[in-house]
Design brief:
Blueprint lengths: L5 H12 L13 H13 L20 H10 L6 E11 L6 E14 L11 H26 L5
Antiparallel strand pairs: 1-2
């Protein structure tokens, strides 16, 4: 899933060059349609990915969409983080967009799968969002160490 923003369009074009299918939308614009399309794609055997902090942030705060979807489908959440060095950090964007410069080293760092129960109560989803958030924080720090990047 990519956002319908300018940056989302850039991401969609890059992902398409690597053979990925993207769905444009967000929790605030076309969320239900995007979620149904994502669920259908996962049921057909594809892998679904979300930026779990949503289209508006705050940065790193896991929203319930990905957790709810994983619980409904009975699939694990696999946390992923990236880092690059040298790179530019676009700090005026809410998501602190990290842009690798040409010829930089980049890393895509995968964490252990997080298996969630099927409880879709608000309390359970909130607890699971916190668990995913902690895993992502740890993974981001590991990715930065592995690539040699220090963040503010």
């Amino acid at each position: 899933m990519t956002s319908i923003s300018y940056m989302g369009e850039i991401q969609a074009r890059v992902l398409k060059m690597f053979g990925y299918i993207t769905i444009k939308g967000s929790s605030s614009k076309g969320g239900t349609r995007v979620l149904v399309e994502m669920v259908n794609n996962v049921r057909r055997g594809r892998i679904g990915t979300f930026a779990v902090d949503g289209p508006r942030g705050p940065y790193g705060e896991v929203k319930p969409g990905a957790v709810f979807t994983a619980k409904k489908l009975g699939v694990p959440v696999i946390p992923v983080s990236t880092s690059a060095w040298p790179s530019l950090l676009i700090e005026n964007a809410w998501d602190r967009y990290l842009l690798p410069v040409p010829f930089s080293r980049a890393l895509v760092h995968f964490g252990e799968p997080i298996f969630l129960d099927s409880d879709i109560t608000e309390e359970s989803i909130k607890k699971d969002c916190q668990q995913v958030g902690r895993a992502l924080e740890k993974l981001e720090a590991e990715a930065d160490v592995l690539i040699g990047r220090t963040r503010k």
